[in-house]
Specification:
This protein has 140 residues and is α+β, with helices and mostly antiparallel strands. The protein has three helices and five strands.
């Protein structure tokens, strides 16, 4: 079990790993070794996530979410496969932790009387300035 928060834990069987060839530095080994890791986590069918956390996770995942509701994280920062694997897992756990935080509800507010007065005064000053720009024919 992978501990995400105090209430959320994910079973390792829910995460699928695939090792692929990494781009970037690596010399001759880059064509022989599969050191990059592609992590796949099915958000929609995960029994470990509460529905509201899953919904927030889908929104947070963005382009990393497939049409089927699977989060795909690719890690290839390091040359070692084990470090890429740990990096991908940490990124997934971080994403789920951020999704587990409920959003703070917005409280509607009203402008103060002083703010309304300042706004009206600013509009009057602006109108007066624009009024001075009008070309009026002279009486002469």
């Amino acid at each position: 079990m992978i501990r995400v928060t105090a209430k959320i834990s994910i079973d390792e069987g829910e995460i699928a790993e695939k090792f692929i060839r990494a781009s970037g530095p690596g010399g001759q080994n880059v064509n022989k070794l599969a050191s990059a890791v592609q992590l796949r986590f099915d958000v929609r069918h995960s029994p470990s996530l509460p529905p509201e956390v899953a919904a927030r996770l889908e929104r947070l995942a963005g382009a990393r979410l497939t049409a089927d509701g699977v989060v795909v994280i690719t890690a290839q920062r390091h040359r070692a496969q084990a470090r890429n694997r740990a990096d991908a897992l940490e990124r997934l756990v971080d994403l789920i932790r951020r999704a587990a935080i409920p959003p703070v509800p917005r409280r509607p507010t009203r402008p103060t009387a002083a703010a309304r007065l300042r706004r009206i005064e600013a509009k009057k000053r602006r109108a007066k300035l624009k009024g001075l720009r009008r070309a009026r024919p002279s009486i002469d």
